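Minutes, project check-in
Item: structure for the 345-residue chain
Input as provided by the requester:
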Amino acid sequence: MFTSTGSSGLYKAPLSKSLLLVPSALSLLLTLVLPHCQRFFAYDLQSVKDDFQIWRLLCGRIICLDLKDTFCSSLLIYNFRIFERRYGSRKFASFLLGSWVLSALVDFILVEAVWYSFGITASRNLPSGFLAPVFALFVPFYCSIPRVQVAQILGPLSITNKTLIYILGLQLFTSGSYIWIVAISGLISGVCYHSKMLQIHQVLCVPSWMAKFFSWTLEPIFSSSEPTTEARIGMGATVDIQRQQRMELLDRQLMLSQFAQARRQRQQQGGMINWNRLFPPLRQRQNINYQDGRRSEQQASPALEVSEEQVARLMEMGFSRGDALEALRASNNDLNVATNFLLQH
């Protein structure tokens, strides 16, 4: 598992879906059908400064003219859709709007700094597209998404659930000569907005009336249906593999349903959730004697030690310390499993 954004597609992420479809379609249209119109969408700060072509700040910073940048930015937007689910479409749109506006100002500053420091004119060579907000999303991705090791390679080096995202970002960062200016401006704007510096998040935000308008008009168009929970069983698999897959599916469905029921009871009565009592493996129910033996061992054994670092990571994501402790104990200190339980409910 190389991502930390789940596998439920674009469900509850209409803004991410629109950012995937509309700019990509326009980029393909300009590249394949209307190449003579690409000059109107070039991100040329020199023309903005000298000829007051302000419209380039809008057109040149939405549509990519390079298909490689379109592909990489689309993959990153798809992986960053978790923030729209977590924060809501309005807050996610506010972050994109704030980083988009701030990065335009930082672009001017960086271009002038490069000119005065090295005598290099980069204002006419900046890449176009919705790139700065994509780089800005790396800030909350680094700060709030927990790092889970997937594989160990070459001693201290390891592959985590975030490795592929960073590789895509590095590929996008090195795709052009001056794209590093847009990348740095995006990261700076992401830090400013995420850290709530100078109350920028309150100034550059989407008004509630605008959010309601787009929710009423565009959300039905770009909304996605809820994914089915039934997993497909491989037709070419052996009977043992099919039986194992079905048992794992039943285990997962049982755990999720019992967790939802326990959380509803906790909201009504209060108290801690006893995960170890709620989630006995389904296979243990097939053998009563084995179940009784395991239950007696669990009662006699001491509580599982939980890593404070993993508890802190779950608390940074907005979960309470009690839920984080119980989730980690129930998942045997598996941060990824605990995160999935808490995010889905």
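Outcome recorded: The radius of gyration is 24 Å.
No further action items on this chain.
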